[in-house]
Design brief:
Layout: H1 2-33, E1 37-46, E2 54-57, E3 70-73, E4 76-84, E5 89-93, E6 100-105, E7 111-115, E8 122-128, E9 138-141, E10 153-162, E11 168-175, E12 184-189
Antiparallel strand pairs: 1-2, 1-12, 2-5, 3-4, 3-12, 4-5, 6-7, 6-9, 7-8, 8-11, 9-10, 10-11
Amino acid sequence: KNEIDLFRQKLNGLTEASIENERLKKLLGLKQNSPFKVILVKVIARSSDNWSSSVIIDKGAKNGIKRGMAVISYLGLAGRVAETGKSSAKIMLVSDPDLSISAIVQRSRQEGVICGTLGANLIMRYLPEDSDIKVDDVIVTSGLSRFFPKGLLIGKVIDIGREYSGLSRYALVKPAVNLSGIEEALVIIP
């Protein structure tokens, strides 16, 4: 019985290593094919409160990471660097309500602002009443920021509604990145 338990434990360790290997292969492929200069980082802690969506990474100022830099995974935009220490940094995830990102609908080029909601989805605000946006439209960064290059995948529209004022519309956007499961990422160096 002890031998079986030992083999189960070893098998579980090998399974975890295999899963990590697949994630790292995807990130390495993105790093090698990326038009950006990037730094590979590992998530070492998560925010303990429910009022923000942030993670701590294992690299900081001594590695060239600065406040405001964009953070991506192989699936798309994950967030931006909020604070830096000497050897670690705090990443504000796109789901944080304090983060706003200039974005566009990839198909129609309609501009708006992506904001976090602390929930599973993001919200794209400031869409004119006559905006050309549909469910399943892809949302990407607009490039109107020094730290967020144009064309980074943010997510896909899952619903459209009208603001209470009746003067504009909004869209609910499902993020491309599974923010609750992020373990490694790439920080874009502008």
